[in-house]
Amino acid sequence: MNITELFSLKGRTALVTGAAYGIGFAIAEALGSAGAEIAFCCRSEEHLKTALEGYSARGISARGFICDVTDEAQVAKMINEIGGADILVNNAGIIKRIPMTEMSAEDFREVIDVDLTAPFICSKAVIPDMIKRGGGKIINICSMMSELGRETVSAYASAKGGLKMLTKNIASEYGRFNIQCNGIGPGYIATPQTAPLREIQPDGARHPFDRFIISKTPAERWGEPSDLAGAAVFLASRASDFVNGQILYVDGGILAYIGKQP
Ligand code: NAP
Ligand code: GCO
Fold it and tell me: Cα(166)–Cα(160) distance, rounded to whole angstroms?
């Protein structure tokens, strides 16, 4: 097999959850550009419509579904309509930035439900068909918070830490069926999810957290969703057939760096 074929996704079906915009959209675009047939989901009709226009404008043929990934019946219906997936990217996610002692159990559970239980639900739904097909790829979108904590993100860090271990467990339990389950751990990426952390201040200054992240990133910049494209194609392709249970951090060096001296 030549190197181009090794990274080709031609003839594969990829389902990317939460891919109406942000990281999911960029990953779906990359997988589509590598030849995969794209299916994606989100909860909002408006987001779905805009996303379909976006994929079409980029020459990507994508099928979009309204599906809340925390709802097992909706997930089963979507995967049945897709006809199964060779590649599943568990990308859909939310965050609630609340000091832990002020966070309700309901808010905590909602974050766990989307960021951890939903990847379980979606993975459980695709694995039986992947086994019948002779194998598959599951990619879980983890986080810096799979390794680190910080104020106000207790639910999110708990979910992303759990997602790292779910990744390792799926790899352990289903590797013998030629299913590879790996994670991508993005650093701080400029998307709607992190927009509040990058808001320009009333005096025109950059957000303090924005400046903090720049000081903690050797690349001295926020990541762009497109920075994740290569890692996603690699982990979705034959090139990673002997890679299993790994988290590939695409973080501009944050996890390696103590941070710039003030
Ligand atoms: P985002 O901009 O908030 O986009 C989230 C996407 O998920 C949207 O398309 C949203 O569409 C969809 N979604 C949310 N809840 C859903 C649900 N229950 N069912 C189906 N779709 C749902 O987030 P992002 O920054 O692109 O992040 C994507 C993933 O990367 C998340 O797992 C996040 O934790 C992770 N991550 C982000 C960063 C970062 O710095 N941005 C870094 C590391 C990891 P609807 O609202 O229409 O459903
Ligand atoms: C936050 C951010 C982070 C990023 C990402 C970092 O509030 O700290 O939202 O959690 O979303 O997960 O990898």
Answer: 9
Domain range spanning residue 152? 3-187+228-249
In this structure, which residue's CA is closest to atom 3 in ligand 2?
188
Torsion of CA 118, 119, 124, 128, to 10 degrees: 130
Q: 209 and 82 in one domain? A: no
CATH of the domain at 110: 3.40.50.720
Asked if residues 150 and 107 have their Cβ atoms less than 8 Å apart, the reply is no
Looking at 156, 174, 188, 249, which residue is catalytic? 156
pTM recorded for the entire structure: 0.98
94 neighbors 70 (Cβ within 8 angstroms): no
Phi, psi of 90 (to 5 degrees): -85, 90
Q: Identify whether residues 110 and 170 lie together within a single domain.
A: yes
The 10 Å Cβ neighbour count of residue 65 is: 18
Counting from 1 in the atom list of ligand 1, the atom nearest the Cα of 186 is 43
Q: Are 115 and 156 in contact (CB under 8 A)?
A: yes
Q: How many helices, marked H, and strands, marked E, lie in the chain?
A: 9, 7
Strand partners, 238: none
Asked if residue 53 is part of any domain, the answer here is yes
Residue in 147, 141, 139, 144 with CA at minimum distance from that of residue 182 = 139
Convert the pLDDT of each residue in 208-218 to its tens digit.
999 999 999 99
Structure tokens at 20: 């109406």
Q: With contact defined as beta carbons under 8 Å apart, do 212 and 206 qualify? A: no
pLDDT tens digits, 121-134: 999 999 999 999 99
